[in-house]
Design a protein that fits this description.
The complex is a heterodimer of chains A (about 375) and B (about 290). Chain A is an alpha+beta fold. Chain A folds into 2 domains: about 220 residues, Rossmann fold (3-Layer(aba) Sandwich); about 120 residues, Nucleic acid-binding proteins (OB fold (Dihydrolipoamide Acetyltransferase, E2P)), CATH 2.40.50. Chain A has a 6-stranded mixed beta sheet with strand order 6-7-8-3-9-10, sandwiched between helices. A 5-stranded antiparallel beta sheet of chain A has the order 13-12-11-14-20. In chain A, helix 2 packs parallel to helix 4 and helix 3 packs across helix 4. The radius of gyration of chain A is 25 Å and the shape is elongated. The relative contact order of chain A is 0.11. The model of chain A has no long low-confidence stretch (mean pLDDT about 85). In chain B, helix 3 runs antiparallel to helix 10, helix 7 runs antiparallel to helix 10 and helix 8 packs across helix 9. Chain B has one domain: MetI-like fold, CATH 1.10.3720.10. Helices cover about 75% and strands about 0% of the residues of chain B. Chain B is built from 13 helices and no strands. Chain B starts with a helix and ends with a helix. The mean pLDDT of chain B is about 85. The chains are: A alpha+beta (about 375), B mainly alpha (about 290). The interface between A and B is medium-sized, with 26 and 20 residues. The complex binds adenosine-5'-triphosphate and magnesium ion (MG).
Chain lengths: ~375, ~290
């Protein structure tokens, strides 16, 4: 508790949204820090957009309160909140040129003319559209429109910009480019970005922190590395990347699976998180942390034996399914020496798999139902 | 090649029925009226044919000029009032949930399904001495007798008569507006007035222009309303034409007045078009020069 955390840009307390009898956002608390790239990640329909719309003020929360920069904004209209939204559909004004779209907020807020032009040019420079100022939105490509929308959102220098799946409508290649662009711009302008996506890879590559949502609940808020390596629940483990989930039961401080015996897992950490003997659990192991032994005789003690069920060559690696007594495990094998040994094996060959205890994360078998 | 020629022949053939209808219903009557406006009238209401400019000369009498001027003024007023009210109504309907919109539109058209005369008479009852408006005014202690005949009654019932004509084109152009633009405007700091002035009015401009035209032009031809609700003291051109045809039984003079009104209508439509174009071009130019300055 010695370090002083960055000031909080957005603070949500007990925020809830109910449409009719359907509770779309369960009461949730969230602190988003100043200047951070914060992603909200979750499957379709989990309430991401609804949460964003409550922060902007387009929707009124059924319950709870919202603070922006330490100020309660429950009764503050959208236009007086120091934030801007980048809409899923961009929502550019079709009758205005690129320049006028970007200038819109400054004109509305009666910015002096001398300052206005400089700031609009600067924003257009930032998104690399300075040469397109006179075009109409209809004369731009999808990626360019998206950048106009971004310039329009940051030109007024809001404290927070909310982006609702801004890259959803772009093709794969453009998406990748824009991810880097967005990250670069966010660093340049130093504005807090709240970024909604259901693309886990996008969230992992861009964010400082990620909130994983499911069915109106925030399941975990952590850095990309922690979300990936230390998921707090079965859902998070399964939703981010691919993950083997081995059902087991805690006995004498060990995770015991009928087929495996004791499953290698980080039991110390699990106890710290309150997992007790007798609990039904799953052991989550990432495919890339599993080592495949082509010759079971050479496998270390504690390795599980299995049968080679299926393998797919992906160029730089193999994805292999190994059927053990306890479960079918997905294993990633890098091409190279190991890969060559693997290629030489016949389907159905006996193999062994092993991983270090640190690679196995023990999680409750049932999602905690609130 | 052969194909495109055949297509264009088929296309031309398909135009035939529409062309015949337009010819019979628009061109022929127009030609007849144009011809009649130069004909010599006889005092008993006959049309002697021949050619004279007398009819047009008679129209130079200030009596006619006054009525034409008053009618143009009334038509402009009605077009403006209808378009403003139409804008408000259209915006209201267009921002309701999609499934409620057809019902609201129906409510706007329903009065149109009843006879024009009946609708006008209902205004006499509504605004007359025994009507609810006067009743309420009296109950509130405001001394009032009857609003009929009066110019207020004329303006009100003109608005009522032409409102649907204003609502529909505006609603049509408003429905094409992406609803998220309203939120985008609010998000960018625009209040109620700015959102309309900067987003909704410009984006429904074509609907607003149609509304102005569709209400302005027919107001010039209205003749029942000024008689029933205005007491006939301030006739519109429409009344004058009817009077010339029926009471004065002077067909050529009525035809000449009709031609004058027609030319005035076309001139106002052209003028309005010109003004709109100049205004929008001017706005674009000033925005550009402001920027380069
Ligand atoms: N105005 C509304 N009235 C009723 N239900 C709504 C409304 N808006 C959203 N919902 C419901 O709330 C739930 C969450 O919607 P939301 O748009 O927040 O999801 P999302 O996480 O953004 O999904 P996606 O990734 O598909 O955009 C959905 O089940 C949706 O049907
Ligand atoms: Mg959404």
């Amino acid at each position: 508790m010695t370090e002083t955390p960055a000031p909080v840009a957005v603070r949500l307390r007990g925020i809830t949204k109910t449409f009719g009898s359907n509770t779309v956002v369960q009461p949730l608390d969230l602190d988003i820090r100043d200047g951070e790239f914060f992603s909200i990640l979750g499957p379709s329909g989990c309430g991401k957009t609804t949460l964003m719309r409550m922060i902007t003020g387009f929707e009124t929360p059924t319950d709870g309160s919202i603070e922006l920069d330490g100020r309660n904004v429950d009764k503050v209209a959208t236009r007086d909140r120091d934030l801007n939204m980048l809409f899923q559909s961009y929502a550019l004004f079709p009758h205005l040129s690129v320049y006028e779209n970007v200038a819109f907020e400054l004109r509305v807020r009666r910015t002096p003319k001398a300052e206005l032009d400089g700031r609009v040019r600067e924003a257009l420079q930032l998104v690399r559209l300075a040469d397109f100022a006179e075009r109409k939105p209809s004369e731009l490509s999808g990626g360019q429109r998206q950048r106009v929308a971004l310039a329009r959102a940051v030109v007024g220098r809001p404290a927070v910009v909310l982006l609702d799946e801004p890259l959803g409508a772009l093709d794969q290649k453009l998406r990748k480019e824009m991810q880097f662009e967005l990250k670069r711009m966010q660093r340049e302008v130093g504005i807090t970005f709240i970024y909604v996506t259901h693309d886990q890879e996008e969230a992992l590559t861009m964010s400082d922190r990620i909130a994983v949502m499911s069915a109106g609940r925030v399941l975990q808020v952590a850095s990309p590395i922690d979300i990936y390596d230390a998921p707090a629940s079965r859902f998070v483990a399964g939703f981010i990347g691919s993950c083997n989930l081995i059902p087991a039961r805690m006995e004498a401080g060990k995770a015991i699976c009928s087929g495996f015996g004791a499953v290698p897992a980080d039991t110390v950490d699990a106890q710290a998180r309150g997992v007790r003997d007798g609990d039904e659990v799953v052991v989550a192991v990432r495919p890339e942390r599993i080592t495949l032994h082509a010759d079971p005789a050479l496998a270390p003690a504690g390795a599980a034996r299995g049968v080679l069920a299926e393998r797919v060559f992906l160029g730089d690696e193999w994805t292999v399914h190994v059927s053990t007594q306890g479960a079918v495990l997905t294993v990633q094998v890098p091409s190279g020496e190991n890969g060559a040994a693997l290629a030489a094996l016949a389907d159905g060959a006996e193999v062994a798999v092993s991983w270090t205890p640190a690679a196995g994360r023990i999680l409750p078998a049932e999602e905690a139902a609130a | 090649m052969a194909n495109t020629r055949r297509d264009s022949v088929t296309g031309a053939l398909m135009m035939v029925p529409a062309s015949i209808v337009i010819l019979l219903l628009v061109v022929v009557p127009m030609v007849i009226i144009a011809r009649d406006s130069f004909a010599i009238s006889d005092p008993l209401g006959g049309n002697l044919g021949g050619f004279t400019l007398d009819n047009y000369a008679k129209l130079l009498d200030p009596v006619y000029g006054k009525t034409i001027g008053y009618s143009l003024g009334m038509a402009v007023l009605n077009a403006i009032v209808c378009t403003i009210v139409g804008y408000v109504v259209a915006y209201y309907i267009a921002t309701r949930p999609a499934r409620r919109q057809p019902v609201l539109l129906l409510l706007v058209i329903i009065p149109f399904l009843t006879d024009f005369l009946v609708r006008t008479f209902s205004w006499i009852t509504l605004l007359g001495s025994g009507g609810p408006i006067i009743g309420i005014a009296k109950a509130l202690g405001i001394p009032a007798t009857s609003l009929v005949p009066s110019q207020t009654a004329v303006v009100l019932s003109l608005l009522y008569a032409f409102l649907p004509v204003a609502v529909f084109p505006i609603y049509a152009s408003m429905r094409a507006i992406d609803p998220s633009l309203r939120e985008a405007a609010a998000d960018l700091g625009a209040g109620w007035w700015q959102t309309h002035a900067r987003v909704f009015v410009p984006l429904s401009a074509s609907g607003l222009a149609s509304s102005v035209m569709l209400t302005f032009v027919p107001t010039l031809g209205v003749f029942v309303i000024p008689v029933l609700l205005g007491g006939g003291k301030d006739p519109l051109v429409g009344n004058l034409i009817v009077t010339l045809f029926t009471e004065f039984r002077n067909e050529p003079l009525g035809a000449a007045l009709s031609m004058v009104v027609l030319v005035l209508m076309l001139a106002s439509v052209a003028l309005a078009g010109l003004v709109t174009r100049l205004v929008s071009r001017g706005a674009r130019r000033s925005a550009r020069s402001e920027r380069s300055a």
